[in-house]
Design a protein that fits this description.
- The protein is an all-alpha fold and 327 residues long.
- Helix content is 79%, strand content 0%.
- It is built from 10 helices and no strands.
- The radius of gyration is 26 Å and the shape is elongated.
Amino acid sequence: MLLPASFLRFVIWSGGWHQAAVCALSVAVFLLNAFPIETQRRIIDTAVHAGPLSTILTLAAVQLAILVAFGLAKLVMNVYRAWLGEYATRDLRLVVTRRLEGLSAEDSPLSSGTGLAMILAEADDIGAFVGSSLSLPIVEIGFLASVFIYLAVLDIKMMFVSILILTPQFVFVPLMQRAINRRVAQRTRILRHFGDEILSPSKSESSVRRLDEVFSINLGIFEIKFSLNFLMNLTYSLGNLLVLGIGCVLVVQEQTEIATVVTFLSATGRIVDPWNDVVDWARNLALTTVKYGLVTRALDASPGSPASLAGQPPDAPGLRTAGSDGT
């Protein structure tokens, strides 16, 4: 069993048509998540203009039905995602385990700490992301797109104000995430060496040094992550203030209605979680790609792998390179 060269190919290789099914379910989820914004606006607008109580009750019932349908659809989607993630974790562990079974203790570092780390820890991190790797951006980006299109229909000026809330994050999020990626890759390599050392005799002094290195790297990761959260929350707070201020000015100038301003404030609040999920997804994608690359490189470097057999004659026994014959 060979792992695909890239993480995206691994996602498709492991999930197959199930990835397409969960992506289709994701479309239904983001559409159901967007509808309550309009029903909420209609309820407020009806109340402000002293509309009939029956209309308000009908709209409230419709909103309740949409919320229940959304919750059930999201429940099914989350369970489906978890199943895909566990399935991918099992596949990854199976590939590594079968490679280890064909090696003797002196053949490769995979037979000691590195192999154990890949099976017990790294496979969980990679597999857990597989379930949401394709469906999560469909849900969250789809919802964000539907919200901004809806806001543009209501008031194009206010829509551009809402977009300004997210603009600064396109600058500092990628920069800070690249710094996190470098530290995660370094930490993974150190922990692999640490696993090798604790399985070898008389390595206590070296192990202490390894743990100190991991401690320092983890602190650096936390500092960057919490700083990133601070900057994101700050942009949201400033954005809400901007929407409120400009919206009230437009109301005073009779260029918009109070129900529209309330809708924009509500929509601005509702885009925070989806946008955070998109940012987290992008961060996890970068981290998982790094971790998956470390796993595939370790397997390629082990005896019996296609890479290690590159210099052998054509009839030498060994595994074929993934994709060399169309598989």
